[in-house]
Specification:
The protein is an alpha+beta fold. The chain has two domains: 128 residues, Beta-Lactamase, CATH 3.30.450; 158 residues, Alpha-Beta Plaits, CATH 3.30.70. 46% of the residues lie in helices and 22% in strands. It has eleven helices and twelve strands. It has a five-stranded antiparallel beta sheet with strand order 2-1-5-4-3. A five-stranded mixed beta sheet has the order 7-8-6-11-12, sandwiched between helices. Strand 4 and strand 5 form a beta hairpin. Helix 8 crosses helix 9 and helix 9 crosses helix 10. It is elongated. It starts with a helix and ends in a 5-residue tail after the last strand.
Length: 320
């Protein structure tokens, strides 16, 4: 009677294993498959008879064998469960994703639990591998992270030009100045504005003015290095922070940019609009009281360029 009861319980357990919506694979200590439920059959396309007594690594050659062997051996040695999450590894076995809501993902994201199964002699003779489909959770989290990153980018970016907005740029300058104070690093600042920009708006209209600003911004992005911070300071005025650069290096950058803008062609309604810029340059090669003073020095140099006839670069002059 007891044996019949045990047999009935076994059938009930097998029915549950077959019907639950998770993958269940039982392997022996040689990693040979002994139990393979309907979830595994449906997603792999392989029946239990096809995989029975085959090595798990033969059935799933995409699994990193050394890593997973170590996982299984640790579970068997310690006799305690182990887990892997999709954030650590997107999946254990590569199954296609068939969920209609999250159909944009080409594979199923998985969490995995490894459970040691003890024999009557208390030794771990088998390990149960349970695979959970967490694609919807993973996709939602990834979309949320992407949305947050985009919001962060938008909050620090000038929408018209794609350059840093003034708040983000000034914060970068403040941090660079703090680095200068601590490590005595060099940094230079270039500020410039578009010559006679009001005349462009008055003559050709604000759409043409926007096109000019965008064209100048594109040239700035083409000339800066990866660690430079270029920003729209306001209206037609721009600023570029050049870390680890002195005033002479910044002057070369400014002149290259000035000549590039002068050669630029901005067309609006069949008319080519001439564009030039005036630039001011300063660096931290002299004692300063804060990052605001570097802005003040650079602005003074920019004023000198405007006063001197525009379309030129001026350096901040250290008082005698």
């Amino acid at each position: 009677m007891s044996a019949l009861l045990d047999l009935n319980e076994f059938h009930w357990l097998m029915a549950i294993v077959q019907s639950i919506d998770v993958g269940v694979v039982m392997v022996d200590r040689e990693y040979r498959v002994e139990i393979w439920n309907s979830f595994m059959e449906n997603h792999s396309g392989r029946t239990p008879d096809e995989v029975h007594q085959q090595s798990f690594f033969t059935v799933f050659p995409e699994v990193e064998e050394e890593w997973f062997r170590n996982k299984l051996e640790t579970v068997a040695l310690l006799g305690t469960p182990a887990f892997t999450l999709w954030e650590q590894r997107p999946y254990l076995v590569r199954f296609k994703n068939y969920q209609p809501i999250t159909g944009q993902e080409d594979h199923m994201y998985q969490n995995v639990t490894l459970i040691p199964l003890r024999a009557t002699n208390s030794e771990v003779a088998h390990i149960c591998v349970i695979i959970y489909d967490v694609t919807e959770v993973a996709t939602n989290k990834r979309q949320l992270q992407a949305a947050n990153l985009e919001l962060k980018r938008l909050s620090s970016t000038d929408r018209l030009t794609g350059l840093s907005n003034r708040g983000h740029w000034e914060e970068a300058l403040r941090l660079e100045y703090a680095r200068h104070q601590r490590y005595r690093t060099m940094a230079a600042l270039v500020m410039f504005d578009i010559d006679h920009f009001k005349k462009v708006n008055d003559t050709y209209g604000h759409q043409a003015g926007d096109k000019v600003i965008q064209g100048v911004a594109d040239l700035v992005l083409a000339h800066v290095r990866t660690n430079d911070i270029a920003g729209r300071y306001g209206g037609e005025e721009f600023a570029v922070l050049l870390p680890d650069t002195d005033i002479q290096g910044a002057r070369l950058f400014a002149e290259r940019l000035r000549l590039a803008v002068e050669a630029m062609r901005v067309e609006h309604e069949g008319v080519v609009i001439p564009v030039t810029i005036s630039l001011g340059v300063a660096d931290l090669g002299q004692p300063s009281s804060g990052h605001e003073q570097l802005i003040e020095w650079t602005d003074q140099a920019l004023y000198s360029s405007k006063k001197g006839g525009r379309n030129r670069t001026s350096l901040h002059q250290v008082p005698a």
